[in-house]
Amino acid sequence: MNPLPAARALDQFFLDARSRVLDLAATLDRIGRGADPAAAAADPRMARLREALGVLLSADGGRAERVQQLFSLPYDPAWERPAPRM
Fold first, then answer.
1. DSSP, residue by residue, 9-77
2. 76/73 Cα distance (integer angstroms)
3. Are the C-beta atoms of residues 56 and 63 closer than 8 Å to each other?
4. Which residue in 65, 45, 53 sits closest to 25, CA to CA?
5. pTM, whole model, 2 decimals?
6. For 10-28, what is each residue's pLDDT tens digit?
């Protein structure tokens, strides 16, 4: 399977990406305008969001995987296997 040409991928996904970036900007504005924005700025979730934005701005590949891992718990071999639903 051949990858989609970059120009065609940009044509196809630009509006969706633009919408998501605008949504994120609006969310960050709402947080910033909230009461006690310093507390939000010190929250570890904001640190993860800032780190994820840094990953997105990098020119390296594998951005989606790296962002996913930022928001994921590390694997724990002691996790209980879920029981099937009946």
1. HHHHHHHHHHHHHHHHHHHHHHHHHSS-HHHHHHSHHHHHHHHHHHHHHSSSS-HHHHHHHHTSPPP-T
2. 8
3. yes
4. 53
5. 0.78
6. 999 999 999 999 999 999 9
